[in-house]
Amino acid sequence: MINLLTVLFKKEVMDASRDKRSIMAGLYYAIGAPIGVCLLMSVLLQQLASPEALKINIENSDSAPGLIAHLNSRDIFASTDANERKDITLSISDDYQQKMSEGRPATVTLIADKSDDKLRKHINQVEKAIALYSSEIASLRLVSRGVDPSLMRAIVIEVHDQATPDSKGGMILGIVVLTLILALFYAAMNLAIDTSAGERERNSLSLLLSHPLHSLHIVLAKIGAITTFSMLGLMVILVVSKFSYAMVPWQQMGFSITITPAFMLFSIAICLPIALMSASLQVFVSFMAKSFKEAQSYVTMVLFIPMALSMITTYDIATDKVQWLPIAAQQFALMEFIKGNPIPIPQLLLSTVITLVLCVAFSFLSARMLKSEKVVFGL
Amino acid sequence: MKSISNCFNRLIIKVMMPILMVASTASYAENNQNNQPKLTPCYMEGLSDRLMCGSIAQPLSDDPSEGEIDIHFAVIPAIKPSHPDEAVLGFAGGPGQGAIDLARIFDHNLRFARETRDIVLVDQRGTGYSHQLQCESDDLKTQFAFNDVIADLQAMGAEDTQKCKAKLNIDLSNFTTPVAAKDFEAVRVALGYKGFHLYGVSYGTRIAQEYMRQFPNAVLTSTLDGVVPMQQSLAAIGGAVDGSLAALFKRCETDALCAAQYPNLANNFNSLLTRLEQQPVQTQVRHPRTNDLIDFTITKMKLYSAIRFALYGHAQRAIVPMVIEKALRGDYSPLAGMMANVDLTQSLAMGMHNAIVCGEDWPRLTTQTRAQYSKTYMGKAMIAGLDIACPILNVKAVDETFYQPLKTSTPTLLLSGGRDPATPASWAELAMVEMTNATHLVATTVTHGVGSQTCAPKIIAKFIDQQSMRDIDTTCINDANDKPFFMNINGVAVANSHSTDVANKE
Question: Under DSSP, is residue B198 helix (H, G, I), strand (E, B) or coil?
């Protein structure tokens, strides 16, 4: 029987390998996704590394030369050109000097639209700079009265952050792992549709079934071939990730993302059950559809499920419960591994078992469907 | 923050306590006997990042029978260790400051260098956690009440020094710069780094230069921030203090508002000093923290010292004219506030400080240099203090070759502040006479410590990366960073200037 399966598997792989362009199309994602992420992040980092001077509208700036000098030293400048400045107005009250010299709080008014996402960062920057100036002046006021300004700090919080540079990546690590898991699905999607719905449309499926074979053998061989290409996609994306992520200057943001050989082996081991499950699921869905086109639509829809599970983990939604589910648990384990944290073994084991059970279930269902003429001939 | 302290201050301290190894929130595992030091996670004040701390045992002296002392160090791990066999080694100032406790400042000044390289901080022997040589100082109340004019300073200083010596009970000759340099090399070997990029601040530049001299092959680059040349005595600091103060007076004079509010500031300061010299003021002020009424004696020395330490920071400099003006009118609360804000003796290991100055700076004083340094008030006071303490402490003078300017072709970046009250730019020029690959940058408005006041951290990181200063844009170092003077007790604003205009118009 093993021999039979091997022959069938070889047939499927050979069949798939004939269309080189289609295989390459499947792998484009594996090559392109990490590079795309890296390019985007590099642009973002460049913006963060050399922030442009913030130009805002300052009214009545003559009243507060000290404050203006302080803002300038924090890269915030007054500008009269409405085109180049941000839509933030800082209005210094007319009695600023009076209030300041009397020791009363002097008022400056910050006029801006806080719902404007692009502006919020700059508003915070202005607010922070003014707060710093205020506390500097306040400290010196106390010193001038012979009072130790540290009295103003009744409690000091000393933070002992247990994070390491490898674990601080957070959201970006989630995206990195998400791209890996999606590669499993994308790399073999074409093949899954082609080997099932496609084979049926080419009328070669009925030919195959006319041989003295158990339909389960045919399904298993197809799943094997699809899984092989899935794993090939995973290996490609891992290799591309290893080199491309190393080139992004993450350190400027205070963390690093390193794809180690150990992580690569770990992800191959963790992702194999997912690849099997995804292959059986895609075959099942493709057989359910009446035509190639319909199968394409369904498979694309079905892909939303793993993507959603993976994203839920990435964005940390209800992690406590979701982390027991397949894909979500594997994604979580991969993230913990890359952060250097202990791996949640029970969750990982349970979800792997569920993943394999699903794979078996989808395989049997597909095999049963192949016994129906309605399915075989797409009636 | 890092400073060459005034050892005279120390001599007016009466009570002493046994040497304390300062406990911190950090967990320190005892060093095991292996060659590879055991590293344990630890945290330092003001820095939330996790460091790795450890220690190695080093012989106290050439004589093995005298035993060993533990040299403690901390590693601030690189964000992305692209150069795992290199690290940046930070040297603290003082002399007497521990580098590990200053992790926050080193992390700030070397934050860009840390992106790709570890930062290694070693507590120099006698400081911090490495067999700290400390003599307890007076509390604030005693310091405020102390009258250095009527006290017999000679006898008191001698008594203090004797007590300190008895408590430390160790040969201070084992704590000089040339001896300590070997500990840094031992740490490098133990941690397995192929080379160090040095970053020394203030006195730390002296030990950095000595390390370069002894272990030239271990040094990849060297950044010296606030340079002490090997051929320069710390007792020459008086000139820098006066220069920095003169710069402050000049800035007030050229500023229309300050000149109007505080006319004749320099003259007023001098007449205040003369008045206090003739007759110290005895008064009472509120304790800056407890609010109790306490005795406050203002002498020339105390006023001058307070102003001197205020010159280190821009925020404190902003209130100097007001403090002088108020004191002249008999209001000493601002002075008390300023004195409470500067508490350097707490953070300096005075035993180690004295080992350095008595072994390196005092023996080399000649009649000529004595006369020269004594022209300034601070220089004179410092030499007087050394003359009391050093004969008692009996530190073996370092070798004559120690005072030779450092000859090196290692890429070196020297940084000076134009208003530095401790290490003026001329000192850096003196240090680089025999350096063939050195660049000197002077940041015009900076006081002491260019790394913490300017864009220098970026320049330092680039310099370390390419091991040369070629094509590095250094213009940002001259961005003005001083603060406007306080015009009255409430701030920089001048009352009625604008609002009266408005009122007149209405």
Answer: strand
Number of H helices, E strands in chain B: 19, 11
Q: Tell me the chain B residues in contact with residue A142 when contact means C-beta distances shorter than 8 Å.
A: 337
| CA pseudo-torsion sign B68, B71, B72, B74 | negative
Q: What is the largest CA-CA distance in chain B?
A: 88
Please name which of B195, B145, B126 lies closest in space to residue B410, comparing C-alpha atoms. B195
- What is the distance between the alpha carbons of residues B391 and B370, in angstroms, rounded to a whole number? 16
A251:B79 CB<8 A: yes
B498 falls in which pLDDT band (50, 70, 90)?
Answer: very low
Domain ranges, ordered by start, for chain A: 2-45+168-376, 52-152
Q: How confident is the model at residue A209 (pLDDT cuts 50, 70, 90)?
A: confident
Q: What is the pLDDT of residues A271-304, one digit of tens each?
A: 999 999 989 998 888 888 888 888 888 888 888 8
- ipTM of the shown complex: 0.84
CA dihedral of residues B68, B74, B77, B83 (deg, nearest 10): -40
Half-sphere exposure of B69 (CA within 13 A, CB side): 28
Give the distance from residue A39's alpha carbon to the nearest chain B alpha carbon, in angstroms: 19
Query: Which residues have CB under 8 Å from A368's CB, separation 6+?
Result: A215
How distant is the Cα of B430 from the closest Cα of chain A, in angstroms? Answer: 32
The DSSP bridge partners found for residue B219 are B196
Eight-class DSSP state of A253: G
The structure tokens listed for A355 are 């993943």
